[in-house]
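# nightly structure sweep
# worker-07 picked up a monomer target from the shared queue
# config: single-sequence mode, recycle default, output format = structure tokens
# input follows
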Amino acid sequence: MNTRLTEFQRLRTGDSASISRRYSNEELAAWARISHAPAPEGRVPEPLIAALFSYLLGEELPGHGTNYLKQEMRFTDHGRVDEELTATVTITRLRPDKALVNLVSRCTGEDGRIICDGESLVLFKR
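# output follows
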């Protein structure tokens, strides 16, 4: 039996996964040193928010081994230092013939405001 197909068949449109994270001033300063980017002032850099989606897609839904094919993100606000940010991905379409998964993504601040939203197309584990 093809294990990959069996795992794919467990996925359902509407399935979602979330992660919540706070970034401290110390963590943002460390990120700035490592990335050689300017130190952010009171806000979470967009690449750290994007990393939350990378974690979710690669480890939670669809899961380990998933490969990005396309990603689009639209930032409408900034995450704040020490604010709980919640990133969520939700399956919108499954294409079993090609093992492709379409998902929407959204990150919100602790007050419910939208930080960013977008879409992803991933290739399920091969």
